[in-house]
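lol ok so funny story. i was supposed to be doing the assay writeup but got distracted and ended up predicting the structure for this chain instead. priorities right. anyway since i did it might as well share w the group, maybe its usefull for someone
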Amino acid sequence: MSVYVDTSAFFAVLDADDEMHPAARLEWERQLRSGVSLHTCSYVLVETSALLQRRIGMDALRIFSADILPVIDIVWVDEAVHRSAYHALLVASRRDISFVDCVSFEAMRRLGIDHVFCFDQHFSEQGFHVVPLIG
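and the output, tada:
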């Protein structure tokens, strides 16, 4: 099985002050033990790196780079995915969905991945199976 990992999960795993940190740590460890294939896209890396650097600091960014990225398969966003996601963002015409989320939706569909580790309701709205199940 393959699982896509979103910025919201990466951040919650690394930020001990995040309200979702306990659930995120448990889920991260469960994913690693289960041997599933973990994926994310290059745009999520940019978003996560900027968020970690600004909110937590360079040490968190170093941990992300040294301990987390080596176990993640990175999908590099090409022009077709970029254009399709941008079109989807404009068609959705919603301020609460980010471009990076639209890129993730498109990348997941193209890869045939339907499970996502995140704390973002937009993925379930798009029909993906979100883990962990919270609430």
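The longest helix spans residues 21-34. The two ends are 24 Å apart (CA to CA).
back to the writeup now i swear
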